[in-house]
Amino acid sequence: MATIGQIAAELGLSKSTVSRALRGVPGIAQETVALVREAADRLDYVPSVAAAGLSTGRNQAVGIVVPSLTRWFYSEVVSGITRTLAAHGYDAVLFDLDRSHVGENRPFARSLLRRRVDAVIVVATVFAPDELAELGLLDIPMVAVGPPTPGLRNIGVNDADIMGTATAHMLDLGHRTIGLVGGYDAESLTIFGASEREHAFMRTVMQTGAVVEPTWMLSGGYRSGMAKMVVSHLYRSSSWPTALVCASDEMAFGALFAIHEAGLRVPDDVSVIGIDGHENAAAYDLTTCEQDAQGQGALAASQVIAELEGAPAPDAFDPAPFRLIVRGSTAEPRVR
Amino acid sequence: MATIGQIAAELGLSKSTVSRALRGVPGIAQETVALVREAADRLDYVPSVAAAGLSTGRNQAVGIVVPSLTRWFYSEVVSGITRTLAAHGYDAVLFDLDRSHVGENRPFARSLLRRRVDAVIVVATVFAPDELAELGLLDIPMVAVGPPTPGLRNIGVNDADIMGTATAHMLDLGHRTIGLVGGYDAESLTIFGASEREHAFMRTVMQTGAVVEPTWMLSGGYRSGMAKMVVSHLYRSSSWPTALVCASDEMAFGALFAIHEAGLRVPDDVSVIGIDGHENAAAYDLTTCEQDAQGQGALAASQVIAELEGAPAPDAFDPAPFRLIVRGSTAEPRVR
DNA sequence: GTGAAAGCGCTAACAG
DNA sequence: CTGTTAGCGCTTTCAC
């Protein structure tokens, strides 16, 4: 593997000149630059981040902490992050906390602390106080994507607003018996966002004078399969709501399935709305509140990169946008 | 940030002694080791991978190349990899090729080449010849997970076998009109595995003397939504198969949905089988050929780590195991 | 059992 | 516009 020194020797130049030429630092003759570049290509030169990092203190890498990759939303966010990082020449170091539990002294900290990354992006992860303290020690740009995360600035939709919009859509259509498929994601443990959503649901429903039926508040664990089970159970009972608000599209898919399986029709018998804007929502004709997961990841990445380059670090970010996409899964309640 | 030198100064020892004590190199007095460890903790010492890497040539990191994270199977594999890496003290550098196309000179190579990783694991990705050449230059352990990948050793199920087993299950039940939901994943472009599966399907069906109806060979793009669409279309036509073999569970979910939506029943009217062992398969009562995605990722990680530590590098790996899990989505065809 | 010294590949003043 | 000289923080002979 060629080094900067070999190129220098080959060309009778000094290492510094070669280094500058390679990095495009101004103040080097055009022809010298060309010469160096040519030699570098010819010798298959590849820079060593380790060496560069040692002298500059920069690793050209950012850490991504994620509780699980199997939830569609998270993987979208991660895609958005990695793409943006790549575009700016940064590498992504992935810390998948999958199945670990808060406080179990998850291993990322030690590793993160190895001074491998210049910044950290945390996706929908809740930390124990000591973990947070350890992260704080890093003293590098750090932002969260997803629901509010204690101790971190976050980029994400306003959970109350998005749920309020979804619920209001059902109320506007005239539904007065509305169920919720919520609960929280056992892996991500982002209980804050989840309970924000549940409260917003109740608040919105109650504002119209409608009643929130406790047995219609289902816990779908943010997974399609679990949502299917609980919804199946509900629609096998004698009294069920004409509308179902789901805190995620994946759960909505499970709900749709369960409703069909129960021999009922969407939206004739039951209306269903989701939240997220999942790639399959259109195919399932699912009304949803769409947010841009990739965009949020991309924004987080741009932000930490900017801060790395000296941009100011705001204390908070504007809530991410979302919009209601009305499709065929919601309609006015049929007069029964 | 404390360095090895500061600890040495603090204790009146030399840097080499501290280094050895910290790494547990034999030949250091017990008490010295204890002293050093204590001081390191007290000073919040964190080793610098860059510095260590510079002198040893090792980064304690492995690269993961993946075409997309939004397909469930891939994210499971990645989880398996990262968990294993973490357990062995390695970091994961993620290269998400999402949406890029073969030959578009995807950016991973340059980055990977920055000597940042000690090994590479490629998940279901097909490379252009020049990309492969560039990867070859790296000269580090490299294995693929998923379908066979030209130019790389791979860990994965035998596509023909798993599809053969799924198809045979339908034939064994007595089905003679069988459709396939296959196609290939536009993002991963692992056409090899996909076409292996299609061929195995045809071969198996034809062995019983049954006919493969061209219009029953559907292309679901390995996505639930797309599968739902094509299956819907098929079951709206006048002639449809009593059994549907899906090349992935995600597509099977779409198929199940479409069948219900068409007013037909599973398994009374149509039997459906998937491949993968998706986390939601049980909830949807889906018969499937289950493989251990996480396990395959974990195995790949263990393997490259072993090779990094001097273990021999086999030319090929045994095919990964899978097993048929019969659930309620398949049954004997009803006599019509 | 411990220390001194050299060096990994690069960047960054400081000169010229 | 280019070269010299120090390091960055760690590992690794080679001595003692």
Number-wise, the strands of chain A total: 11
Q: Strand sequence of the main sheet of chain A, in spatial order?
A: 7-6-8-9-10-11
**What oligomerization state is this entry in?**
homodimer
Q: Outline of chain A, from the CA principal axes?
A: elongated
Mean pLDDT of chain A: 91
Uncertain runs of chain A are none
Terminal CA distance of chain A: 77 Å
Which pair of protein chains has the largest interface, and what are the residue counts? A-B, 60 and 59 residues
Radius of gyration of chain A: 25 Å
Quickly count the helices of chain A.
Answer: 12
* Helical content class of chain A: 40-55%
Report the major sheet of chain A.
6 strands, mixed
The H-and-E topology of chain A, N to C, reads as: HHHHEHEHEHEEHEHEHEHEEHE
- Estimate the strand proportion of chain A: 5-15%
What is this entry, summarized?
The structure is a homodimer of 336-residue chains. With 336 residues, chain A is of the alpha/beta class.
Ordered list of secondary-structure elements with their pairings:
2 copies of one chain form a homodimer.
Chain A: H1 4-11, H2 15-23, H3 30-42, H4 49-56, E1 61-66, H5 72-87, E2 91-96, H6 108-112, E3 119-123, H7 129-138, E4 142-145, E5 154-155, H8 159-173, E6 178-182, H9 191-207, E7 217-219, H10 224-235, E8 243-246, H11 249-261, E9 271-276, E10 287-291, H12 293-308, E11 322-325
Parallel strand pairs in A: 1-2, 1-3, 3-4, 4-5, 6-7, 6-8, 8-9, 9-10
Antiparallel strand pairs in A: 10-11
Chain A binds a DNA duplex (16 and 16 nucleotides) through α2 and α4.
